[in-house]
Amino acid sequence: MPALQGKKFRLLLVDDDAMTRQFMSARLTRQGYDIAVAEDGYRALSLLEGEPFDLLLLDIMMPGMSGIDVLTQVRRKFSMLSLPVIMVTANDLEESMVEALEKGANDYLLKPISMPVTLARIKTQLSLRYLSALKDEFVRFASHDLKKPLMLLRDIARRKRRAHRR
Prior knowledge:
By secondary structure, the chain is α/β, with parallel strands linked by helices.
């Protein structure tokens, strides 16, 4: 994606399995992503409070606080476009996937992880996030640039109305 080239994206990888964190972190780092890791939901929420991330990869089944619980907390603060969340699970039960999507997950991945699929899904979510930010910027500029001419037209219309009443 040309629009995304040159930007270093920051991803938060949350998984209770150390080998999974290490494997995914190494592979994603080699692809040019800046990776932070958390071993549980509590640490993930703490990291999200302190620093901005472009995307969250979140394991569903974790002790203490499940990925669904973390997702629920994340969606209270971040929209689906401001922080895309891709759920990662070894549980291929449809109910888990449906619940995650209903609670605001953008996508999901099944373990064992396929890196080509993972990279494609990350790129898709980052592209959507980028396009949303671009749209917001355009609307901000357009509304600012249109404000003065619209105010001028309103003033002209008011003057004409007043002149017509006399």
